[in-house]
């Protein structure tokens, strides 16, 4: 029992460190790791979500999971349903106004900016929120709606509205979003910003 508890604690600490490393790598305004731990609402929301998601797995603890997610929304401005499934090294920059629905699925190494919605377009009790692949960046104010698939290595521009699948490696911008591919697989994302102003976040 003690060994199992230590193992769980070690895994939790490792995951927290991994989240902090991801935040340091993606936030040029970060002064230090301590600064991020104390002042990043995105990190606070993620950590709270991870606990709420654990609680959500136990039917009798679902009300507690919902209470925790509601309290977190009040404190951070980020609303993540505890039923959502979110991968490793997830980061939300700024945080305010992010909404992630119950059946949303998010891969590894994903970054969201403020005001992003991973929302539904149905009231039916079915898979109604997006599935987002690995290494995806979603710009401020973007809306990804419905049970669509967003592939790996996708960039979604600020304020875009995405209601159709986005294939791997694509760039999606506009309302409704249109999809294009980089000129070459090695296109520098920084250079892409100058070609596609809507990617500015």
Automatic annotation (TrEMBL):
InterPro entries: Hexapep, Hexapep_transf_CS, LbH_SAT, Ser_AcTrfase_N_sf, Ser_O-AcTrfase, Serine_acetyltransferase, Trimer_LpxA-like_sf. Keywords: Acyltransferase, Amino-acid biosynthesis, Cysteine biosynthesis, Repeat, Transferase. It catalyses: L-serine + acetyl-CoA = O-acetyl-L-serine + CoA. It comes from the Bacteria. GO terms for cellular component: cytoplasm. Its EC number is 2.3.1.30. Pfam families: Hexapep. One of its GO terms (biological process) is cysteine biosynthetic process from serine. The keyword Lyase does not apply. Pathway: Amino-acid biosynthesis; L-cysteine biosynthesis; L-cysteine from L-serine: step 1/2. GO terms for molecular function: serine O-acetyltransferase activity. NCBIfam families: cysE (TIGR01172), EPS_EpsC (NF041874). Belongs to the transferase hexapeptide repeat family. This is Serine acetyltransferase. It comes from Knoellia remsis.
């Amino acid at each position: 029992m003690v060994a199992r508890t230590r193992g769980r604690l070690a895994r939790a600490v490792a995951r927290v460190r991994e989240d902090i490393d991801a935040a340091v790598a993606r936030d040029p305004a970060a002064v230090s790791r301590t600064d991020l731990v104390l002042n990043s609402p995105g990190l606070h929301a993620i950590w709270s979500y991870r606990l709420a998601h654990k609680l959500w797995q136990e039917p009798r603890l679902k009300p507690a999971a919902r209470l925790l997610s509601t309290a977190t929304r009040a404190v951070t401005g980020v609303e993540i349903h505890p039923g959502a499934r979110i991968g490793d090294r997830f980061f939300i920059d700024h945080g305010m106004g992010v909404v992630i629905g119950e059946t949303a699925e998010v891969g590894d190494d994903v970054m969201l900016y403020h005001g992003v919605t991973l929302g539904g377009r149905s009231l039916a009790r079915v898979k109604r929120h997006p599935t987002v692949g690995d290494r995806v960046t979603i710009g401020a104010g973007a809306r990804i709606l419905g049970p669509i698939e967003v592939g790996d290595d996708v960039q979604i521009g600020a304020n875009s509205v995405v209601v159709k699948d986005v294939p791997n490696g694509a760039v999606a911008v506009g309302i409704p979003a249109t999809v294009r591919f980089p000129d070459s697989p090695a296109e520098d994302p920084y250079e892409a910003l100058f070609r596609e102003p809507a990617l500015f976040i």
